[in-house]
Amino acid sequence: MADAQPPPNTAAANDAASVPSKERLRTRCCYCLCKTLWIFLVLIIVLVMLVILVLYIIVTPSSFRFHVTDARLTLFDYTANSTLRYNLVLNITASNPNKKLKIYYDVVQANAFYGGVRFSTTDVNMPWNSYLQDKKSSNLFSAVFSGQRVMALDRKQVSEFHEDDKDGVFPIDVKIRFTIRFRLEAFQFGYYYPRGSCKLKVPFTSKVEKVASFNPTKCQIDF
């Protein structure tokens, strides 16, 4: 009579089969959780970008406007030792066209050029509210260039200087460097670095008479 075979251990087999299933289930759960978190993060980023875009469209910053309204040149003398002595005062109007944004002027620095050669640099005098300009407003300020500088002009430039001196009107270019921020209610944003260029025809003003009148000039702002 053949020996009877013991019945298989079904409980152990089931436990062994259930181990991979539990690991697969745990792996699947981790994958689903990570996928859900990633989708949620992407949705938040997209939502934030959309909000920023909408706000930017609503309050898109517009470039300010600069006009040189008056210029007084009381000294502009090029001596035989290649030294330019000068005294130039500019009155400038700054306009903020934005309906919702105020402007902080952190740096406003002006450079004056004659014949393509820089002869002076000065900080612009900003007299209002610690350089804060209100929305839809215009303000006045001034730039003063005074002193002397050695300038090595060539023969052609010296000849042109004498011609301008004879006419009593000097072509002077003023380039302005800005560092500004915008303010929306209590929020400030950005640091912008626009550049301004003002091509001026400045009449020489003596103590006795003024040779010609200065024409107000709009400055080109590269925003």
From TrEMBL:
CC terms in the record's Gene Ontology section: plasma membrane; plasmodesma
Keywords on record: Membrane, Transmembrane, Transmembrane helix
Record bears the keyword Hydrolase: no
Residue intervals passing through the bilayer: 36-59
Cellular location(s): Membrane
Gene Ontology terms describing biological process: defense response to other organism
Signal peptide start and end residues: none
Xref: InterPro entries: NDR1-like
Keyword Membrane assigned: yes
Name the record gives this protein: Late embryogenesis abundant protein LEA-2 subgroup domain-containing protein
PANTHER family: OS05G0367900 PROTEIN (PTHR31415), PROTEIN, PUTATIVE-RELATED (PTHR31415:SF75)
Chief localization: membrane
Domain of life: Eukaryota
